[in-house]
Amino acid sequence: MEQYILPMKQINNKQILAAVMTISAGLMMTHSAQAQLISLSGISGTSVASAAGAGWVGSSGPTTFTQTPSGTEVQGTTANGYGYSYWNDGAVLLTPGDTQVTLQITINGSLTGYDWMGIPLTLNDGGPNEVFSGLYSAPGNPGNFPGTSWTGNTGSLTWQLNSAEITAINGGSEYLYGFNSGLNPATLPANYDITFNSLDFSAVPEPSTLAYSAVGAASILLFRRRK
Questions:
Q1: SS3 16
Q2: Which residues of 110-145 are buried (b: 16+ CB within 10 A; e: fewer)?
Q3: Taking residues 157-184, what's their average pLDDT?
Q4: What is the distance between the alpha carbons of residues 153 and 111, in angstroms, rounded to a whole number?
Q5: In terms of pTM, does the model score above 0.90?
């Protein structure tokens, strides 16, 4: 039987790199598909305002909760007024592989006065709650805590799940029933207006995926040069 040998000269370096990048992109898309976004626009402002732990404790003025297409809008009337509330998500089955959670918020209107604020988070999974300390940050503040980032008026605050929570999620029967969050500000304007947009569970991207692809591409190119 005649053996067929692949004509390596017909395959140039650009084709090899294109193939490697295509594979890498596919792996990255697989990772992205694991992200689990929970929109907060489906929770009524009334239920949030009347839930246990609500009332925006610490604020002397009234706080208004408004349901919007982009989430739950919280409007306060006290400068630096502390407050928190409970969001009831029903029962959301968390996806195995999730290792981190990101809360997205948006400052409505001018960014003036939003100099430094903390956002705490407590997950209710029906068991020992996952409690996270506040991530302090603000738009344009050079001292933002790790895990926080801002794009214009929108901030993303990311916490790493602990090993016990990750083990429970990977068991395939871990539910999120709700969570507590709010504001523990240091500097906020007298009439602040912030929307809590979403809660997003996802897997931390593994650097090995791209590293293996890079090693594979380098190995092929090195082999071609030696040929």
A1: helix
A2: eeeebeebbbbbbbbbeeeebebebbbbbeebeebe
A3: 91
A4: 7
A5: no
Q: Tell me the pLDDT tens digit for each residue of 122-139.
A: 999 887 768 888 899 999
DSSP letters along 124-191, please?
E-SSS-EEEEEEEE-TT-TTPPTTEEEETTEEEEEEEPPHHHHHHHHTT--EEEEEEEEEEEEE--SS
As a whole number, the mean pLDDT across the chain is: 76
| CATH label of the domain that carries residue 190 | 2.60.120
* Residue 73 lies inside a defined structural domain of this protein: yes
Number of domains in the chain: 1
User: What is the rounded CA–CA span in Å between residue 94 and residue 125?
Assistant: 10
Phi and psi torsions of 44, nearest 5°: -70, 145
Q: What is the CA radius of gyration of the chain?
A: 23
| Residue 157, burial from CB neighbour count under 10 angstroms (0-12, 13-18, 19+) | buried
Q: Are 179 and 87 in contact (CB under 8 A)?
A: yes
Reading the block at residue 207, the tokens are 């650097």
Structural domain including 143 reads: 35-203
